[in-house]
Amino acid sequence: VQLQASGGGLVQAGDSLRLSCATSGRSRYAMSWFRQSPGKEREFVAAISWSGGSIDYTDSVKGRFTISRNNAKNTVYLQMNSLKPEDTAIYYCSATHNTWGEAGTTTTPPAFPYEYEYWGQGTLVTVSS
Questions:
Q1: 8, 38, 77, 99: which has the fewest C-beta neighbours closer than 10 Å?
Q2: In this structure, is the dihedral angle defined by the CA atoms of residues 69, 117, 89 and 36, taken in order, positive or negative?
Q3: Is there a contact between 21 and 8 (Cβ–Cβ < 8 Å)?
């Protein structure tokens, strides 16, 4: 599967951005967004199950970011509000065959990069103070 992330840019603190991740193919994937700042490891930001019924966020973005998906369009979104300079990073979308969040499975999403089989190329988000 191929993932194409878009929507990054340069904004001021307090502004909003919406990232999109278009996926090829029609397989069932749980999706996540990660981010990576210079000199830091790639970190988990948000995850959404295949059905969209289960969602999780890292604590630093709760209440500000919203992950969603439109399976008819094979696209996942990350709405980012009240952006802060510390949100500056390259944002990556990722996909996994993990069925977390579906009936009868774990409610905890995979949160480490090695747990994801597919990655997009990343989109840069820069938040100025």
A1: 38
A2: positive
A3: no
| Calculated CA dihedral for residues 119, 6, 4, 37, nearest 10 degrees | -20
Encode pLDDT of 110-126 as tens digits: 999 999 999 999 999 99
Nearest Cα to 58, choosing from 86, 23, 16, 99? 86
CA 125 to chain CA centroid, Å, is 13
Q: What are phi and psi of 87, to 5 degrees?
A: -85, -5
Radius of gyration of the chain (CA): 14
The strand ranges marked E within 24-105 are: 30-36, 43-48, 55-57, 65-70, 75-80, 89-96
Looking only at the bridges linking them, the beta strands covering 89-96 and 123-128 are antiparallel
* The predicted structure's pLDDT at residue 83: 98
